[in-house]
Amino acid sequence: MSTEELRQLFGRNYLGPEQINKMLAVMGLVPLPVGAVPAVGYSDKLLREKSRDHILVLGYAGEAGNPLDIIRFRDCFGVDPDKSEPCLYNQDWYLKEEFVRRTLENRWYLVRRDVIEESRAAQPDVLLKQDIVFPSAILCVYAFFACCIAWGDKLWYHDFVWCSDTDHNGDRIYVGKYHDIDGVNKNGFSIHRHLALRPCYGSINLM
């Protein structure tokens, strides 16, 4: 299918060259290079089946020497919703982690738009045994900002989603939940880690 046919099929679930260039313009970056749109590596049958509940995303790694990683998104969009939105949630624990320097491949991705209801409150190790494939943190960040700028939709507004990345301790990364429904925390796309129990966790006693 052509990019126009894909856009018509996916509607607001489509993040193709035009939508990615809108995001790049807001970020003050140069548009996609001519000829940078690869063939879609999915069958027409699968695309039609997934068009209602998945987002088709054109991945882009950025220019040489100017990678489109999570740090780039943080630098461009900031962490203070009082200054501008959309933004990332204000936290800095991940700045020296390896996963925030990773970029996407220059290819198309199909990522589910909404959380799988049956996956709620399930441990990530259990979900992985069910053949669920977690997206990378950079794919989620990239799709969130691209969708917000192109269509005005904030993905995973009240939900966290598990990612394929881990931190230097092996703790699983999860992202999302732009808005705190209780109003305690400020708006911002969150990046967290799920702390695993280790020998350094223990109890003391109160008499």
Which geometry do the CA atoms define? globular
Q: Tally the beta strands.
A: 8
- Average pLDDT number: 94
Strand residue percentage: 15-25%
The total count of helices amounts to 6
Strand line-up in the sheet with most strands: 1-2-5
Notes on the structure:
With 207 residues, the chain is an alpha+beta fold. It has one domain. It is built from six helices and eight strands; from the N terminus they run H-E-H-H-E-E-E-H-E-H-H-E-E-E. The strands form three sheets. The chain has a three-stranded mixed beta sheet with strand order 1-2-5. A three-stranded antiparallel beta sheet has the order 6-7-8, with helices on one face. Strands 3-4 form a two-stranded antiparallel ribbon. Helix 2 packs across helix 6. The longest helix has 15 residues. The model has no long low-confidence stretch (mean pLDDT 94).
Task: Outline the secondary-structure elements.
Blueprint: H1 3-10, E1 14-15, H2 17-26, H3 44-50, E2 54-58, E3 62-63, E4 66-67, H4 70-77, E5 108-112, H5 124-128, H6 137-151, E6 160-166, E7 172-176, E8 190-194
Parallel strand pairs: 1-2
Antiparallel strand pairs: 2-5, 3-4, 6-7, 7-8
Question: What would the keywords be for this entry?
Answer:
alpha+beta; three-stranded mixed sheet
Short account of what is shown:
With 207 residues, this protein is of the alpha+beta class.
